[in-house]
């Protein structure tokens, strides 16, 4: 509902975000004005919201996140030691600590999520969705490998074209990093393949001659 939406935005600004001074909130509070969309668009720019005025669901989600962040910042001492009600139970605490431990990999929603992630990161589709997960190296070996220090040259992400847009700057950077890491792994694999080819060629190109048999071979 348009009226409820406008009231919601005004409430967020008045009660939580408080980006404007009280005397500067008049245009935003005038929810019945024909110019309210312009006032709202200006407000989005002033709070540095990355979404367009037409993207209401995304805008609401972003403004709520901003409000929560500011609410926490104003009451950090109050919230920092808070414990969720469900975590008071020992079993629930263990479950919360390991959210993936009871994951049902056969759940249709899980499969759909894997497919969506593959499409987002432009990973080649496979009939077995678990194989696609292995592309991301979700194994203990990968965790151990990632924990090893490895020096390299710094990379300027802005100089690399991602090829698609997730609609979120942070997700775009994460996707760029994942793709660059994937490319590095492919190059490492190609190097090993080339080394294997060279080794085989060295064996083939250096045959031993057996004069007694009248032929060349090993």
TrEMBL record:
InterPro entries referenced in this protein's UniProt entry, alphabetically: RTRAF (IPR019265)
Designated name of the protein: RNA transcription, translation and transport factor protein
Family per similarity comment: Belongs to the RTRAF family.
Domain of life of the native organism: Eukaryota
Pfam families: RLL
């Amino acid at each position: 509902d348009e009226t409820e939406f406008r009231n919601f935005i005004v409430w967020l600004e008045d009660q939580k975000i408080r980006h404007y001074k009280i005397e500067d909130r008049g245009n935003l509070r005038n929810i019945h004005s024909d110019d309210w969309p312009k006032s709202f668009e200006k407000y989005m720019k002033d709070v540095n919201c990355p979404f367009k005025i037409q993207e209401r669901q995304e805008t609401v989600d972003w403004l709520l996140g901003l409000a929560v962040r500011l609410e926490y910042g104003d009451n950090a001492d109050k919230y920092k030691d808070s414990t969720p009600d469900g975590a008071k139970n020992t079993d629930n605490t263990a479950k919360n600590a390991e959210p993936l431990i009871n994951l049902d990999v056969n759940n249709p929603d899980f499969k759909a999520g894997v497919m969506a992630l593959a499409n987002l990161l432009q990973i080649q589709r496979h009939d077995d969705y678990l194989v696609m997960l292995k592309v991301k190296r979700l194994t203990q070996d990968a965790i151990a490998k990632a924990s090893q220090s490895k020096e390299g040259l710094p990379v300027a992400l802005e100089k690399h074209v991602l090829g698609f847009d997730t609609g979120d700057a942070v997700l775009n950077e994460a996707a760029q990093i994942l793709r660059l890491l994937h490319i590095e792994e492919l190059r490492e694999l190609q190097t090993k393949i080339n080394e294997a080819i060279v080794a085989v060629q060295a064996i083939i190109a250096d045959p031993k001659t057996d004069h007694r048999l009248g032929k060349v071979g090993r």
